[in-house]
Specification:
Helix content is 49%, strand content 14%. By secondary structure, the chain is an alpha/beta fold.
Length: 518
Amino acid sequence: MQSQALPKLKIASSAEPELRALSVLVVDDEGLIRETLTAYLYHLGVRHVDTAANGKMAIDALENMAYDYIFMDLMMPEMDGMEVLTYLNKTGIPTAVIVMTGYPSMEKVIEAMRHGASDFLVKPFRLQDVKVSMERIHRLHALMEKNWALNQELEQKKQVEKLNDELQKKIKEKTLLYEIIDTLSQLNLSENLYTYLVRKASEACNAEKACFLVHDPSKGSLFTFTHHGIKGLRPGTEVALLRGGRGTTYIDKGFIDKHMAKTNGRPVQSQRVCRLPNLLSVPFQIRGELFGVLLVANKKEGAAFDRDDEFVLNFLAEKAALNVENMALYHNLKENMFATLASLVSAIEARDRYTQQHSERVTRLSLEIAYELNCSPEELRKLEAAGPLHDIGKIGIDDHILKKPGKLTDEEFQVIKTHPIIGVNIVSHLGLDDDELAIVRNHHERWDGRGYPDGLRAQEIPKLARILSVADAFDAMNSDRAYRHRLPFPRCLEELRRNAGTQFDPQIVDAAVRVLGI
């Protein structure tokens, strides 16, 4: 692997590489990234920077010039980054490759490292991360060069072992950072994120306790959100923020001493890192504003928290904060889209005075039935989100069919039967999961398999679609329609019972009858 040739790199005695002596190659199919990274590297003082738009052009450049660092995208046309790594590995060209990718799966990272990559940056990244990555590789190369020199010169065994320990520590740290990024990229619910946050903080710092406190600006205090290893601490416990000079705030010492660790009166600020022997506190900031505070306490085996713990906790808080911000933006966008679609549904229903507020009533009854069936909070959330959209596909059905006062012809009924497919096509790009999409697609399936559009039967029909089907049928019978008056309430219940086991799931019908008060 190319690491065998690392002594060729310009290794200075300082903590930073000698930038004026370096040559760098930037490989990316996006021109803006090449231009921005080139300008930043020159700004740092790098002597020479070349660029390439794909892997083939990169290899052409490598055949004509030696580079100390290569910043390279993995996904490129003609020849991708992994092929360039393979080429470097085979030829033994001494260089440090920093992979840039927007899809940081653990498998890809491990494969890239096996092929000789030294580090990686996750797009989008901050320009200062480029300098941090170069410094990190420089420090690692310096350790490796010194380790190599010590082995070559047969220096004292203790010093070699110490350097090897440091290398193992760095490898372990890098593996941990990759695992954090990989896991955070897969979390899409804030509850899962905070649970992972305190568990990983405790594990990474080898601490007995971890706690995440969320900031409430309106009250000027913190509240416990989730914790690990702390007994008797209820979620939602208020933690006072005490004001100091120059706008500084401190976390209530009483809370820290009681639930975290004894600090011997030493103050713990809320908006900056605080590291004590038995306590480490890191602020959780979003766009420069305090969002929360991550605390770990009581390192196992009596050890004290060190700079490595501080680095890992800072990294975890920074990446998690970015996740929270992205999730908030996504949820806001999704809520706005759902609100728009709900308005569209209302407009569709307003075309026919007989079906106004139908979707709202069906959703409300579906939630009551689901609650009666002891459905999980997540299932209730899905019904509440997708229920109002179940008939959105009717926007594609002509009014003369929807509002026809008499019986539909076979051809007209076939048109009506397309509305679930039309509805799924409308909402399929909103990020709904399979259960939510099934509510729109399968709410006209029948227990006996004679429904539409997929002819599913019994348990093949997704549970939430079966629930909404019963609520939808009841509301249709209990409402005036263009072709008939509403049925008497007892008759509606009788029809539900009569069709249990043929059209409807019998258990759901039983739950609906209980909800409706009989």
